Amino acid sequence: MDLGKYFLKRLNTLKLIKLNSFLMLVLLNICPLIAQSNKNLLFKGHPGVVSFTYRKQFEKDVPSTLDLIKKNGFTDMELSNLFGKTAVEFKQLLDDKGIKCSSFGVSYSDLFNKTEEVAQNAKILGAEYVRIANIPHKDSLTLEETKKAIEDFNRIGKILKEKYNLTFVYHNHGFEFGKYKGGTLYDLLVKESKPEFVSFELDILWAFFPGYDPAELLKKYGNRYKLIHLKDLKKGVKGNLSGGTPQDNDVALGTGQINIKEVIIAANKAGVKHFYIEDESSNIDVQVPESIKFLKSLVK
Question: How, if at all, do strands 183-184 and 179-180 pair?
Fold first, then answer.
């Protein structure tokens, strides 16, 4: 036997054993730290996204836009437009990309004038929620218009729930926060709509813009909120009750005026089911990945 080769082989074996022991020791020490780190994360998993964020891309090419959405890690979407496709066609494209549509956003008029079509499309898409984001009004929202909306919400919510097993959701847009009896018209909307038929989606920018803290609203109305739009408002921009601001006032989460961490804490306690990033700006290629990174950096 070649003693030199024998001892060299033994030496390499000992080195391998030591290396494996070292790696095992490292893993035993690092894994609990990773687990603890994940345990301390405020935002678990990956956020969803609102199709409106990618509206310009969708208008050009739906399949490639879905590829882009999947590339950014999104598998949950609130769809606000079929972009020239039928619900069946869009569902097939979503299935092909491994993306689900959890919420289907439509206009007020379509929901109330084409209820059956909207509900059928929502069911085909696999959505659980049907959402609108406006109340018909002339200038500033009036008490009469608010009461009419409450009546409409309760009626249509009952139909969607009992006939189609869908949940009706109203998304605030800022103009609902006019003063009323020591509170706001938005308070009236929540309090007088029936919880069994009417739920809410909190757009945090459109709560903050008219001067209200979205985290406090989440604490106040708790599980009435099923969905949330995560977006941030550029620093220095002053709000009002108009329900409108230039789209490039949307900035990456954590770089604007809203305390996103407090929002996530309150939303988790409220039991919000779906968190959607919505960025209306022209800079989504940069801002959307930044927003995802920020969300995943939040710790308790």
Answer: antiparallel
Helix-strand-coil percent breakdown of the chain, rounded to 5? 55, 15, 30
34 and 144 inside one domain? no
**Which residues are bridge partners to 211 per DSSP?**
none
What lies within 8 Å, CB to CB, of 178 at 6+ separation is 140, 141, 184, 185, 241
What DSSP element (H or E) covers 167?
strand 167-171
How many separate domains does the chain show? 2
Indicate if 247 and 128 belong to the same structural domain.
yes
Q: What single-letter amino acid sits at 53?
A: T
**Structural domain of 248:** 45-297
Please report, in angstroms and rounded to a whole number, the separation of the first and last CA atoms in the chain. Answer: 63
**Residues 112, 17: one domain?**
no
d(CA 265, CA 41): 11
Kindly report, residue by residue over 46-100, the tens digit of the pLDDT.
999 999 999 999 999 999 999 999 999 999 999 999 999 999 999 999 999 999 9
DSSP-assigned letter for residue 41: B
C-alpha angle 52/95/101, rounded to 5°? 40
Banded model confidence at residue 34, pLDDT cuts 50, 70, 90: very low
Locus of tokens 């491994």 = 98
pTM score over 0.90: no
For position 278, which CATH number holds? 3.20.20.150
215-244 average pLDDT score: 98
